[in-house]
């Protein structure tokens, strides 16, 4: 069935254009650096030992479970930071993780996941959403469903913007397990990039910087669209439909 495109106010279209541009540019220069360092995303996972690849999804579920609690609790002790500082902190962590090869990179994985989730929560608050609400924390995990900075994305997969489940402990676990397989691939690519011979810490820093920048951008897309739906009084499904159309136009331009 063809979806009918409803007319929306011009100011909504203007904001939607800004969101589309941010989506298109997510990650920026950092992604080009990663591609130079690590090669194509498809070949990165082949660098990891089979034992590591087989445990990635389980490790990712554990990391997300830990991050959900740790990221939220940290808000009471550490205020939100500027975007550049988040990226700089993440880069420093990546340098430490990459400096010791795969063992330290694996140990750094849950810490990085917590930082990324904390950064996403910070963006939610910036758009006026209450991070104390389980629904908002739920949305924060959904941002990870936007794949990763090395994934090919033509803007056609916008499902993460509109997925909804009944809010409960089981629902949170459901979304974690839904997101985990995709995030496991993302984090596997990150781990593999950090094992590039010789570069070590430099690669770890560049990888974390790029990933933090990417997920900050995707959080702005996600919560920007949520805020626009509320303030513009337009159904989120309609905005998502229009965003998908705009992304295709930007890709083909």
Fold and architecture overview:
The protein is an all-alpha fold and 253 residues long. The protein has one domain. Helix content is 72%, strand content 0%. It has 10 helices and no strands. It has helices spanning 10-25, 29-38, 41-44, 50-74, 83-99, 102-126, 134-143, 169-194, 201-231, 236-252. Helix 1 packs antiparallel against helix 9 and helix 6 (102-126) packs parallel to helix 9 (201-231). The longest helix has 31 residues, at 201-231. The radius of gyration is 18 Å and the shape is globular.
Overall geometry comes to: globular
Q: What is the number of helices? A: 10
Q: Pairing-aware structural class of the strands and helices?
A: mainly alpha
- Overall number of structural domains: 1
Largest sheet: none
For the CA atoms, what is the radius of gyration?
A: 18 Å
What is the string of helix and strand elements? HHHHHHHHHH
- Count every beta strand, where a strand is a DSSP E run of 2 or more residues: 0
What descriptors fit this protein?
single chain, 253 residues, mainly alpha, 72% helix, 0% strand
């Amino acid at each position: 069935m063809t979806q009918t495109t409803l007319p929306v106010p011009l100011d909504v279209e203007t904001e939607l254009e800004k969101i589309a541009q941010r989506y298109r540019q997510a990650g920026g220069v950092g992604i080009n650096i990663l591609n130079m360092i690590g090669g194509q995303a498809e070949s990165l996972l082949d660098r990891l030992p089979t034992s590591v690849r087989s445990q990635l999804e389980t490790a990712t579920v554990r990391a997300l479970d830990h991050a959900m609690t740790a990221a939220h609790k940290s808000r009471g002790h550490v205020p939100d930071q500027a975007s550049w500082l988040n990226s700089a902190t993440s880069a420093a962590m990546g340098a430490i993780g990459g400096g010791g090869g795969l063992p330290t990179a694996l140990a750094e994985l849950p810490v990085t996941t917590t930082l990324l989730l904390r950064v996403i929560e910070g963006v939610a608050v910036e758009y006026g959403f209450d991070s104390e609400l389980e629904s908002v924390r739920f949305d924060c995990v959904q941002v990870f469903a936007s794949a990763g900075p090395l994934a090919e994305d033509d803007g056609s997969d916008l499902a993460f913007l509109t997925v909804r489940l009944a809010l409960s402990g089981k629902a949170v676990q459901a979304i974690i397990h839904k997101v985990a397989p995709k995030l496991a691939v993302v984090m596997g690519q990150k781990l593999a990039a950090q094992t590039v011979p010789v570069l070590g810490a430099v690669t770890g820093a560049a990888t974390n910087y790029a990933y933090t920048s990417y997920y900050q951008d995707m959080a702005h897309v996600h919560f920007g669209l949520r805020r626009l739906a509320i303030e513009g009084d337009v159904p989120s499904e309609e905005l998502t439909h229009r965003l998908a159309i705009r992304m295709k136009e930007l890709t083909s331009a």
